[in-house]
Specification:
With 303 residues, the protein is an alpha+beta fold. Helices cover 29% and strands 27% of the residues.
């Protein structure tokens, strides 16, 4: 079968919503997808391509989501690879590679320097075919303190957790994150993320946390003065969990990043997902050859 490859547009959102349901069995509305593609404040919008059948039906999609990254002393236009999907009736016809190559060509034309992502075991072979470079896995850290009977009584429904966290929220302009990720986590980035996934910037004691509410709090990033000791950090985490009724905190960082090192002694840890990247600007090669890439949980497209 012949397929027509073109750039994705806002008019494709309804068809993408149906394809999302068919491929992942998840309900993602056209409005939700439109918010996810609304990356204009971060640089560019609609960097991706679709494959259409001769009858004009959407067969597959590959897209990336623009953002800003710091590599060495440079701030660059980069993007996360995400939401790759092919309708079951059109798989094993090379559409993934064709769409990825078309998307990378488009991104290069628009001045992007790097594509990164966290392929799962199923999609990783496709990225290997695209000559991606992979690095050591990130580390997942779980803080789950021993709980008293009173703390167990305070455990709340996720909706209650979200409501309690609202009392701790601070303006996005107060976002102050450095060293944990090379993705720029400024007010524009956090605001974009809140457009399609629920998250909050909160402050407890001297610690700022970017969190996604739930029975377990997923932490996109955090910041604290260097003077905050490990014991004070543990006390803050305990107070946060007790006050909002969540049962644990989950972080994701590079093990050698500043927060990876600080969380290791006070959290349970296990290997997370393996980051990979594709260089569009060859002048970045030297800076990326041997240096680690720092990411946090807030850099995943589902956060």
């Amino acid at each position: 079968m012949n397929y027509r490859i073109r750039r994705v547009t806002t008019a494709d959102m309804a068809a993408l919503s149906a394809l999302y349901k068919r491929c992942f069995d998840e309900d993602r509305s056209a409005t939700w997808l439109a918010h996810k593609f609304a990356t204009g404040p971060l640089g560019d919008e609609l960097i991706g391509c679709v494959a259409l059948t001769g009858e004009g039906e959407l067969a597959a999609f590959y897209g990336v989501f623009p953002l800003q990254m710091c590599i060495g002393e440079r701030q660059i236009k980069a993007a996360q690879s995400g939401d790759t999907m092919t309708h079951p009736e059109h798989r094993k016809r090379g559409l993934f590679v064709r769409l990825a190559q078309a998307t990378y060509a488009l991104a290069r034309e628009q001045g992007f320097a790097l594509i990164y992502g966290f392929p799962n075991a199923q999609s990783r072979p496709g990225f290997v075919k695209l000559d991606w470079t992979f690095r050591e896995p990130l580390q997942v850290y779980r803080f789950s303190p021993k709980r008293s009977w009173w703390a167990r009584l305070r455990r709340a429904h996720p909706a209650q957790v979200a409501a309690r966290l609202q009392t701790l929220s601070v303006p996005l302009a107060d976002a102050c994150f450095a060293g944990s990720s090379q993705v720029v986590h400024d007010a524009a980035y956090l605001s974009y993320k809140q457009g399609y996934e629920e998250s909050l910037l909160i402050k407890v004691d001297e610690v700022r946390l970017w969190v996604k509410p739930g029975a377990r709090l997923d932490v996109g990033d955090l910041d604290a003065p260097g003077s905050v000791s490990d014991e004070a950090l543990k006390s803050t985490f305990n107070r946060l969990l007790s006050n909002c009724g969540a049962k644990s905190l989950r972080f994701t960082f590079h093990p050698e990043s500043p927060w990876g090192r600080r969380l290791a002694p006070i959290c349970e840890a296990h290997a997370g997902q393996e980051p990979g990247f594709y260089i569009l600007d060859d002048t970045l090669a030297d800076a990326l050859n041997n240096a680690p890439l720092y990411f946090s949980r807030g850099d995943f497209d589902f956060f």
